[in-house]
């Protein structure tokens, strides 16, 4: 079963009793059933990649959740409620299966997305990681990995990252040290 099927209502393995959390995710997924399947897959992959970055430091802050919801809403013109549902599903799936599915989902997005969509995604993942006013070194590492998986060169990734320099924790630390040494 692919992560996309998991995100949008794949059943539990035979013999497994669904946990209340898994049941909640399935219920939410059923509510998204009115989306056209290809569009649902796009949203699922996009939201999962956003949550991948947010969860890379093992903490998805409320600011990051709100940023993901706004980005998913504006990405595809979803109503606020549906965007929140997509983000919640992606967040839970990333927490549960991120370690094994991160590459698979990003590869699928890479195969289907246009270059413009990939560039837009890169800006979105930087925005999510900066939502709590700091892009950690761990988040930067995750973003660099995603950039490679999407076919960006290091130079291209750095060009996008430069737009978010004021939020980079690693630069803040260097500036603080320089200020103390002056």
Mind explaining what this structure looks like?
74% of the residues lie in helices and 0% in strands. It has helices spanning 3-7, 20-31, 37-55, 62-76, 80-112, 115-130, 137-149, 154-161, 169-181. The chain has one domain (3-181): TerB-like (Orthogonal Bundle). Helix 6 runs antiparallel to helix 7 (137-149).
Features:
9 helices, TerB-like, mainly alpha, globular
Approximately what portion of the residues adopt beta-strand conformation? Answer: under 5%
Main sheet makeup: none
Uncertain runs with pLDDT below 50, 5 residues or more?
Answer: 1-22
Please identify the top-level CATH class: Mainly Alpha
Per the principal axes of the C-alpha atoms, what is the gross shape? globular
- Oligomer category: single chain
Strands, total number: 0
Helical percent range?
over 70%
Reported by name, the CATH topology is TerB-like
Number of domains: 1
Discrete helix count: 9
C-alpha Rg (nearest Å): 17 Å
SSE series: HHHHHHHHH
Class from secondary-structure proportions:
mainly alpha
